[in-house]
Amino acid sequence: MIMPLTTTRLSQDWPCQVKNPGSYDWERSAAKWLRELVPARYAGYPALIRHPVLLARHAQIQVQHEIRVARTALRTARADLPRLGLHESVIEHTIKLYAAELRQLQHIARSVRAVTEALVERSTAGR
Fold first, then answer.
1. CA dist 15 to 58, 76, 96, Å?
2. Which of 59, 76, 40, 47 has its CA nearest to residue 112?
3. Which of 21, 40, 93, 104 has the most CB atoms at less than 10 Å from its CB?
4. DSSP letter string over 81-111?
5. d(CA 53, CA 15)
6. Alpha-carbon Rg of the chain, whole angstroms?
7. Please, what is the Cα angle at 42 between 31 and 123, to 5 degrees?
8. Local confidence pLDDT in tens for the 127 residues of the chain
9. What 3 state SS string does 36-72 have?
10. Whole-prediction pTM value?
11. CB within 8 Å of 114: residues ≥ 6 apart
């Protein structure tokens, strides 16, 4: 069954890898993108394959965990990295890397939320 095109306006956080909600095969593109965000062993679980909204939920949890890890790495870098014998330039580069990764993860988290909302909207509309 082809779902009618949604009237929901996509946010700028909508991932370019995922087709627009309501378009042909958009749920499959969403699930494919979400599988890339979780550890490979989770992507093969039948419940997560059959129910993309469960996969989206797990991806949200996974990304939030990665954000916490990046924040911890960033917060502790100046104290921990010199003890590892790293040169100051390496430490500064690493801090910039952690900050950039944190911004990217925050964007991914917003994208996962947008996809999750669309999947929930689709599953509740199909009831």
1. 17, 31, 24
2. 59
3. 21
4. TGGGT--HHHHHHHHHHHHHHHHHHHHHHHH
5. 16
6. 18
7. 35
8. 444 444 445 789 999 999 999 899 999 999 999 999 999 998 789 999 999 999 999 999 999 999 999 999 999 999 999 999 999 999 999 999 999 999 999 999 999 999 999 999 977 765 5
9. CCCCHHHHCCHHHHHCHHHHHHHHHHHHHHHHHHHHH
10. 0.85
11. 10, 11, 13, 14, 15
Q: Which of 107, 29, 94, 31 is nearest to 66 (CA)?
A: 107
- Pull the structure tokens for residue 44: 């093969």
Length of the chain: 127
Residue whose tokens read 């093969």: 44
Of 8, 61, 7, which Cα lies nearest the Cα of 34?
61
Which tokens go with 122?
Answer: 């689709």
85-to-22, 78, 91, 127 alpha-carbon distances in Å: 54, 12, 10, 60
